[in-house]
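Input sequence (335 aa), recorded before submission:
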Amino acid sequence: MLEYYTFFGLSIPVFLVGIGVLIGALLLSVAYLTYFERKVLGAMQRRQGPMTVGPLGLLQPIADGLKLFSKETIIPSAAHRAVFLIAPMLLFMLALIAWAVIPVGAQMVLSNINVGILYLFAVSSMGVYGVIMAGWASNSRYAFLGAMRSASQMVSYEVSMGLIIVSVLLVCGSLNLSEIVLAERPWFAQILLIPMFVVFLVSILAETNRAPFDLPEGESELSGGFMVEYSSMTFALFFLGEYANMILMSGMTVVLFMGGWLAPLPLEAFEYVPGIVWFVLKTTLVLFFFIWARATFPRYRYDQLMRLGWKVFLPFTLGWIVLMSGTLLAFDALP
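Predicted structure, token format:
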């Protein structure tokens, strides 16, 4: 039976209300993540960042959004019109629907399915199609080269990310994301997961095409990469999709390695803080890592990026899974 919520005399299914709240919160978070990034980068570079629009520049994301959505959408004459317009919509849509299985608190998840990890794999692996479609449909050499870079980069680091998630599943024994958060993890398993956590943090930078792995958008050699021919609303959708993916990957990191909505320490004072607050604080911490990396490291060369993925991360994660499996078996700690 469907549960309904009455709003101004209208009966609306509860799951639709949940979807609306989640999408609204995500869009607001994406808008103010850009503000947060510009402020943090400003502080790291000894400048102020946005200060003009609104108090402390708090209305700057709203002004940027209005500017982008009010401009004319220019489609190159040689572009494939339908694919050119579908690509940014696909990328943005995938960044939203992946949140259906992410638990942001106790019993706070849209769809608590038993194969949540597989669902995330399926959705995140489809993101590369939006980028390739954009590069091909633009009919530009720069855009197509950026799309090819992005495809190889995302596929390369998805292999390592998959193996890292397998190591978490070895410890937790479930594909359900809520059960992964609540699973009892032996102290030695927690220690063994630390190197995997570090590799995962680097891999999500490459997966989301963020600095220092922002080669598909390399302004210095590709003039903007696969987005070079996009403007106004279509460019804004790519922009929103990139930042929504950053929040998604941060949420995945929190669920897999940082205890999800649970308090970091078993202190009595922490018991009164709602779980969703802990989830948001931990996600913000991972997002700060994204921005910190952008402000600190120069862009990698393409051969360095591929070497790191295939010659360092892949052998390391494979060997570490063997080590973890043997350790868990030796201590009879397999779930």
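Checked by second reader. Strands lie at 4-7, 10-13.
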